[in-house]
Amino acid sequence: MTRVPGVNGRTNGRTGSQSQSRGPLAAAREVLDPRVGGARAALERPDRIDPPYERWLDDALAALFRPVEADGFWDDEAGRFVRALCWTPTADGLAWAPPRGRGFPHGPLATMGAMAWRDSPAGTDAYDAKLRRQLAACRRLVAEERYADRREAAVLGPLLDAFARAGTRFGDEWLDAARECFERTRGCAFERAADGLVLAGWATLAERTGDREVRAALSEALGLIDGARGADDPLGLAAPAGRRHRHEQYACWGLARAAAVTDRRDALDAVEAALERAIDRRLRGDGAFLATTAPLGRRLSDRALELVGAPPGRWRVLFAADQTAFATAVAEYAAAGGEYGYEREVAAAMGWLAATNPLGTDLRSVTGLGVPLRAVATDGRIDLPRHRFVGVHEVGTLVAALTHLTAGALADDRAVGDAYARAAGERDTAEWEVTDASD
Question: Backbone phi, then psi, for 32, in 5-degree steps?
């Protein structure tokens, strides 16, 4: 069988070392410091990576709209995205197939990401026919009674955003669909970080229509969230799910978008505080953000269980979408008028996808799909229970981030050294070596 990185032996692209060679001392250090040096180490790396974001965006869009028969996420018979592609190792690498069964997550986040691209200066009409079919499929699924228990706010929020954008590109009927989603989300309690996606949808609808009722709902929601903030919860959306890095980034998307529409500086300050906390607590020395944190006792327990065959704990599994969700959060913060530049942190996170990950290679090359592998353990394993797939929502998150990096708030500053000095003196970090992507 041909070697598949992290499945039947992993070779690091830079050192040639095998993943099994990690000694007990390195494992012990990781237990004591899961961030392996943290933000300082990430920002002081001499090997700045500037991925070709334009090509990455083209490849991600091609994967999203490529037929499943050709290892893509588009089901032409059903006229919608499949919710994931699952992999199994073969002699030629990884074989891909959609999961069986029919569930609701046929791509709210993917639809949101695709419409964000279509609505941007980088957008074209290349995929309009399929995108219209995907929007129609989402509208039908939302209306079906048998999906009533799955129509939660965090699902309707992305669709509301997508429908509002589609109203600009494809006609007023989609604004009607957006207003339907708005009415169904008005009871949102904003008790979870992922509910921030509702704010994003509301903000887009308010921006596109000037609807006073939507603006009033936004202001009321921001007041509710502001009252729930605390010293250890700058977002005001405390819940168990809120401890997950990606969900907190979703909250940042929504709060930043809402701050821009309502001119609420306190909401933007909350986003800044959340980004700072993520950098301080979750950014690893290799540029990746931890999916979650765990107390020392839990880390010791997880490592002990691994010795008897258990999979690695979640704090030792790094996700591609956690990095792209952070990039979008920074972009939304910047677009709303955020004063601090996080370009170095974004560059470190995106560079992790390209080269500084435990495999030492472009995670897109491992899948062969044009999108990154979903997850990699910190020791380089990819054959992880429950993670042998790439979700269409993760592709949507990638498309959104790459749109911002090529045609959005982060596009102009990605390789401009002066942007990195905007907050000179605010952070005690070494000078960052800037290289042009073409070097």
Answer: -75, -35
Q: pLDDT tens, 171-212?
A: 999 999 999 999 989 888 888 888 899 999 999 999 999 999
Amino acid at 318: L
Quick check: 325 and 249 in contact, CB under 8 A?
A: yes
Cβ distance 382 to 366 under 8 Å? yes
Q: Are 130 and 68 in contact (CB under 8 A)?
A: no
Chain segment 253-293, per-residue pLDDT in tens:
999 999 999 999 999 999 999 999 999 999 999 999 999 98
C-alpha count within 13 angstroms, C-beta hemisphere, residue 49: 22
pLDDT, tens digit (0-9, with 9 covering 90-100), for 13-61: 333 333 444 677 888 889 988 998 888 888 877 666 788 999 999 999 9
Amino acid at position 432, single letter = W
**In the chain, where the domains are located:** 42-416
CATH topology of domain 42-416: Glycosyltransferase (1.50.10)
